[in-house]
Design brief:
single chain, 223 residues, 7-stranded mixed β-sheet, alpha/beta
Length: 223
Amino acid sequence: MVERIQTPDPAWAAVDSYIGDRLLGDAPSLTAALLANAAGGLPDIDVSPAQGRMLHLLARMAGARRILEVGTLGGYSTIELARALPDDGELLTLEIDPHHADVARANIAAAGLDDRVEVITGPALDSLTTLTGPFDFVFIDADKENNAAYVEHAIRLSRSGTTIIVDNVIREGGVLDADSDDVRIQGTRKLFEMVAAEPRLTATAVQTVGVKKWDGFLMAMVK
């Protein structure tokens, strides 16, 4: 997720807690994954519980049998996405940091999902060139300066109807700053320009607020 810059409205986190208490229920393996991530020194940049469940539901709604994730971290979103798969489904997730990948593999195994998840270590732009599609659902949550390139690969590895989700595209409003010297903001703006000009995609973006502050997702479907 985006680094926290602005002071959040306390109600945002309170509403997230309300959503979690009423709708998400207990998720021991997800809680354990967050604890393992913290113990392993991973940054606290996972999607929120509500956002993770949203990804799970979107993948199920898409009827996904093959999922591609770019950016694993400790596997929190990976677990939610893998649980949306049928028993014979497959999820490939790409992580540049070997330590993060090891933590994620342990978390995924503890959740009983290692039979359908493969964590591939290395720069995602390199790994993506070795993959064969099509994937039914793609979630991108990695280095923002390469988002446009990741989406281009996602399209190549897609079929008509594939869903593509990109995280952290609002950046606390930073996406509006054309003169920003932040490569993540410039990468996000390049993403919007690329998607807007791409005739194979139908897309929108949605702002979110909550425990992860102010950010949002870009959502697209391949025609």
